[in-house]
Amino acid sequence: MNAITRWTLKWEHGDATIQSLGAMLGPVRFELGRGRSISPLWVAPWDDDAQWPGLMRALRGEWPCLPFGAVHPPIGLPQGFERLDPSDNWNHGYGSNHPWQLVDQTSHMFRLRIDYPDNGEIESLERVIEADPDEPTLDVSLTVRVRREAVLPIALHPTFAVPAEGVEIVGCSHQAIHTYPAPTEPGVSKILPDRAAASLTALPTETGSIDVTRLPLTVATEEILQMAGCQPPFVLRYPASGADVLLDWNAEDLPDALLWISNGGRAQSPWCGRNFALGVEPANSFFDLGRVVVPPAGHPLATRSGLRFLVDQPRTISYRLSVRAM
C-alpha cells in the first residue's frame, strides 16, 4: 500500500493541507483575528487507516467527484427508476480513489493533476487551490479534459465538521428540498423518502417533521437531501467559534446542493456510530445516483443528468471557501 503524501500551505490568514489520495483538502485552519481561528473541514474519525480501500482510507475535507456518485443503487427505490451500469467500481469516480500528482507549488498555491484510465471518457483532472493573501479565503478550480464528448454527473464534496457545541445551517435561498428516493440508511434514516419540502426546518418523518438546521441532531441518523436551485453562497454558522463559513460556486454549472447529514447513524466499521459531519455538495446530478439510475420523466430532478464536456475544450469549474467573523 503506497503511503499518502500531504503538503501544507501556510499564509497570513491560515494554513491548508492537501493529500495525494483524492487531492482531498483538509484540515484547513482560518485565522479570525484577535488570536481566534476555526478549522471547519471534517476529517474522518479513523484519520488514515490502510485497511480501507480507495477514498475510505483517509476520507476528509473537500475534493472533486467525477463522475459523481455511488456505483450500486440503494435498497427500496420506488417503481419507475431505470437501472444503469456505472462502468467501473469507483464510488465518486476514479479521481476520488487514487493518488494525484503535485505539479506546481508556490507560497500561496497548489496545483495537482490526475490522469484517468485510457478506456474512459475523462482524460485528466487538474485542481488548483490558491490562498487569498489578504483574506481567510481559498479559491479552488477544477479543470476537466475529456477524450470524447460526454455528459457526466459531477459534484464537489466539501464536508464540514459538526462539533459537539453545534453548527447552524443558514444555507442558501432555494426552490425546493427533495428527500432521497429511498432510505439513505435502511432502518436508520428518519426522513421519509421521495418527498419534497420547502424548508430544512420541517422535513417529513413518520412521527411529524424534523428540523435539521441545528446539528448535531438528538437522534442517530444518516440523511441525504437535494436543495434544488440553491443560490450560493451557502452559509454555515459556528456559534462557539464566532464565525460563519461560506461556500460559493457557479450555480449555472452546479444548480443544486446535496446535503449529507451524518449524525452517528452508521454503526458498521469504520463509522462505528462515531461520525458526525455535514456534506454540502454543489452538484449537477440526481442525488448521488446519476451513475446507477435514471428517475422517471416526471420527477422534479429528472433533468439533473450532469455537465456536458467536449473534446479539446477543457472546462473549468471554480469555487471559493471563506470565513467571516461574527
From TrEMBL:
One of its GO terms (biological process) is carbohydrate metabolic process. It comes from the Bacteria. One of its GO terms (molecular function) is carbohydrate binding. This is Aldose 1-epimerase. It comes from Caballeronia humi.
